Amino acid sequence: MPEPTDASSPPEAPDPADRSHLHPETKAIRAGRADNDTALAPILWATTTFVTPTIDEGRRMATMAGANRFYSRYGNPTVQGFEDAIAELEGAESARAFASGMGAISAVVLGLCSKGDHIVAQRQLYAGTQLLLQTACPRFGIDVTFVDATVPGSFAEAIRPGKTTLVFAETPANPRLDLADLDEIGAIVGPITVVDSTFATPLVQRPLDHGVDLVVHSATKAIAGHNDATLGVVAGSEELVQWLWSFAVLQGANASPFDAMNGLRGLRTLGVRLRHQSESAQRLAEVLERHPAVTRVSYPGLESHPQRELAKRQMTLPGGLLTFDLAGGLEAGRTFVESTRVAQLATSLGGPETLVTHPASTTHVNLTPDELVANGIEPGTIRVSMGLEHVEDLVADFTQALAGILP
Ligand SMILES: Cc1ncc(COP(=O)(O)O)c(C=O)c1O
């Protein structure tokens, strides 16, 4: 029930800083400007250290979580602008930026888990995360169980009460675009739940709204969006982010102010880039699905995606990534990626240039043959990161490259 209004007091003026009613794209334009003074663009605080007028002030800064005017490994105003923007877009109380997505993920895993703890992680993961969980965690006495994120209830079933401290998911997953159900992960009680939302960005899904505790991004990708910044970020409650900050200050994988500035610049155009890339990916996915050299196309916008209904439920757009398999295996894959003329062969994603990647030989090269199969990666699997070129130039480019491998 609304409170009765007191006719004798004047109506409260709207708070000009309140952006809660705005659309996410508008928030992405406005957010993270607290330290801009009158500059429209972010100010680059390219300094390692800050002058403190007294030792009392120095002591206060040295012990304050998130201090952003003490020493840049602890915090920095440009980096803080980026952190504030991500926190706002994710609906989080706080965020901490890192030198890369892996910096953020390793802080979450190693900062929150101790010897004897157990992690439930999804099997379909970016290979760097998978290797961290598979190789570093056992060295520190942390046990990890991998589950198939596409099987309902698989995360909850693998939890060991009193032992499992962390549940780690990635959705959509790299590179097969498998989805994890955010409502299901958010409903888990006990362990801290984490979602790597890199492929979606905060404009496509907000895991915290589903009850997830922490969201991580490789902001190197679509958030910074121009292949010129290596950057990661974690967002969640003040309490969890402060805890991570205490670890991050010792870990030293802090974001550079320059990369954070590029992260903020990227956020301003994220909405239009995502819409364009999603539309192009949809068109290309439909063309590839009908092509005789292609055996399977994975794209959350296709009716054939096995989790299409889940995609519609938790994502506002299907995104700019798609993955397909070539009938001719490795040789077909090699011929294809070496004959595109508009799309370029490179790892990474989310930038203006369309990139084709051969996961089995690059991003996931360290996985065993069995692990590759478990991740849905075949010798002829190609991942595509749609750029901002005209889509018909890309359709023509893919068609000419595919013509070279037709029997
Ligand atoms: C889903 C996902 N998470 C994390 C990472 C790691 O990010 P970074 O390269 O910024 O360390 C990547 C890199 O490709 C990724 O695709």
Concise summary:
The chain is α/β, with parallel strands linked by helices and 407 residues long. Helices cover 36% and strands 14% of the residues. Bound molecules: pyridoxal-5'-phosphate.
Question: How would you portray this structure in words?
Answer:
With 407 residues, this protein is of the alpha/beta class. The chain folds into two domains: 24-266, Aspartate Aminotransferase, domain 2 (3-Layer(aba) Sandwich); 270-403, Alpha-Beta Complex (Aspartate Aminotransferase, domain 1). It has 13 helices and twelve strands. The chain has helices spanning 24-30, 55-62, 77-90, 101-112, 127-139, 154-158, 182-186, 238-251, 257-289, 308-314, 329-339, 369-374, 391-403; strands at residues 94-98, 118-122, 143-147, 164-170, 192-196, 214-218, 232-236, 294-298, 321-326, 344-345, 355-357, 381-385. The strands form two sheets. The chain has a seven-stranded mixed sheet with strand order 1-7-6-5-4-2-3, with helices on both faces. It has a five-stranded mixed sheet with strand order 8-9-12-11-10. The radius of gyration is 22 Å and the shape is globular. The termini are far apart. The chain binds pyridoxal-5'-phosphate.
